[in-house]
Amino acid sequence: MLEMSIYQEKLDRANLEIQRKKDIVAKSPMRQKFHLMPETGWINDPCGLVYFKGKYHFFYQYNPFDPFWGEMFWGHQVSDDMLHFENLPPALVPSEDYERYPKGGCFTGSAIVKDDKLYLIYTGSTVYEQVQCIAVSEDGVNFTKYEGNPVLHAPEGFKKADFRDPKVWEHNGKYYMVAGTKIGDRGRALVFRSEDLINWEFLNTLYESKGEWGHMFECPNFFPLEDKFVLIFGPMGTGERKAVYFVGDFDYEVGRFYPITSGEVDFGLHFYAPQHFLAPDGRNIIVGWSNNWHWMPIWHDFGATSKDGWTGFFNIPREVTLNDDLTLSFKPIRELEDMAETVCEKENVEIEDKLDLIDGYLYEIKATVDLEKTTAKSIKLALRAKGDHVTEIVYDLKKGMQSIDLAKSDGWSKGKAVAPLNLTGRKELTIDIVSDRSSIEAFANDYREDMSCNIYTTDEDENNSIIAENGKVFLSKLEVKRLNP
Q1: Measured in whole angstroms, how far is the alpha carbon of residue 262 from the centre of its chain?
Q2: Tell me, what CATH number does 425's domain have?
Q3: What is the pLDDT of residue 240?
Q4: How many CB atoms lie within 10 A of CB 194?
Q5: Are 264 and 347 within one domain?
Q6: Are residues 319 and 407 in the same domain?
Q7: Contact assessment for residue 267 and residue 255, using Cβ atoms and an 8 Å cutoff
Q8: Residues 312 and 352 in one domain
Q9: Along the chain (485 residues), what's the average pLDDT of each consecutive run of 10 residues?
Q10: Which residue in 104, 210, 266, 434 is deepest, having the highest Cβ count within 10 Å?
Q11: What pLDDT does residue 1 have?
């Protein structure tokens, strides 16, 4: 029997806390303008991303009480464009024995539409075990947990306390689930099959680490893309890697994935746990959590916003496309164009020293560098500069590397994101920068090599410029757009 009295008491307490604090949090000078963030408290992993009854539904790990991680609820927001959101009450509350634990709760999962109902498939987490559970809604707002939960335990031989983050999809009338786990110090992704979302059979180990991909696969995503399949997960215990992808082949009968290529989704300091879903027009979209964990070597803290009563936001949603060489590109969704106002659009721009671009913090900068004409050894973008504050992005053309340095960004942030810049055989370098109040997302090489970083300035009149270092920079095209959320 479901613990409805515990459920209602926790939900009422959460809603009361949100109402009590939301107006205070809304005054935080670091609030984003077009990225999902909580009304109050803490968020992390995106969960249950889905389009249902005319709205995009975004769920997420949520602690409404404090700006730090705690017992997890599922927060819930809806959107028409994935950039502007309406807050709804928490969708899942940790009320049952299989999820009621101060350092557990309703962990990450996914969503799927079946018989015009919205199903959430999530991990119930306690200190002893992680299990997979179901909740159902007819209106997409009010959810009822399945009385037979949990519907799936870890298969024999796998660690019960590390079996989580189910991602479910449908194929030819059957349902499939991929979930992350481990054996010893090696991560694995397991695949299961079901006729009804309730009764599951273990099909196979989808993919496993031999040690090179860490000791646990978190938040695995698996989906078809053109004639290939894509596996994305967070590889715990692999240094600075936060989200990796593999492209290859999959056999539905055997349940085994055969990777051909691999890469990193984002090389920045603040990108983790991306979740995939299909937009109604067929686009493959992923959304990540714009932060990192304390067990990562790059971790500094969870950000300056905690002093204002909130922590965490999502990265901008990105469309996933397959390139001819079986690498992936991750491009900001085209809905961003709907709030863009062109400030500057030029061709054949020569920069000998410095070119000022735009003032402020809400903008998109697109540049195409002519590598054959450019003589500079490196290109520097000095962004969000005012007084002693500046965030520097450097494209080192001689060393084939790029970086975002946060040392002088805001007096709070630390660290430097470093990524490859593969210019082999290329005649041009494409750059796309998207800036919001507390984030800079940089995309290079046709969206193949991307970096996302958070910064916490509250300055208004910030300068943004391109600097040519040790030579001249030639841009075949330059577009600067002010974003008006």
Answers
A1: 18
A2: 2.60.120.560
A3: 87
A4: 18
A5: no
A6: no
A7: no
A8: no
A9: 86 97 97 98 98 98 97 98 98 96 95 98 96 98 97 96 98 98 95 98 96 95 98 94 97 97 98 98 98 90 96 98 98 98 98 97 98 98 97 98 97 95 97 98 98 94 95 98 97
A10: 266
A11: 63
pTM: 0.97
Q: Which two tokens stand for residue 215?
A: 């000791």
Q: Write the CATH number for 166.
A: 2.115.10.20
The pLDDT of residue 296 is 87
- Retrieve residue 75's tokens: 């927060």
Measured CA to CA, the distance from residue 17 to residue 92 in angstroms comes to: 16
Kindly report the length of the chain: 485
Tokens of 474: 């030639």
Write down the pLDDT at residue 16.
97
Domain that holds residue 151: 4-331
Q: Which pair of tokens denotes residue 425?
A: 């055989």
Phi then psi dihedrals of residue 74, to 5 deg: -110, 115
Closest CA to 59 of 131, 1, 137, 7: 137
**DSSP alpha helices (H): ranges in 234-280?**
none
Q: Which residues are catalytic?
A: 45
Q: Read off the tokens for 275.
A: 């979740």
As to burial, measured by CB atoms within 10 angstroms (0-12 exposed, 13-18 middle, 19+ buried), residue 156 is: exposed
Would you tell me how many other CB atoms lie within 10 Å of the CB of residue 341? 11
Read off the tokens for 477.
């095209």
The reply to whether 159 and 285 lie within a common domain is yes
Name which of 278, 318, 310 is nearest 291 in CA terms: 310
Pairing status of strand 41-52 against strand 310-311: parallel
Domain tally, the chain: 2
**Which tokens in the block code for residue 482?**
């002010």
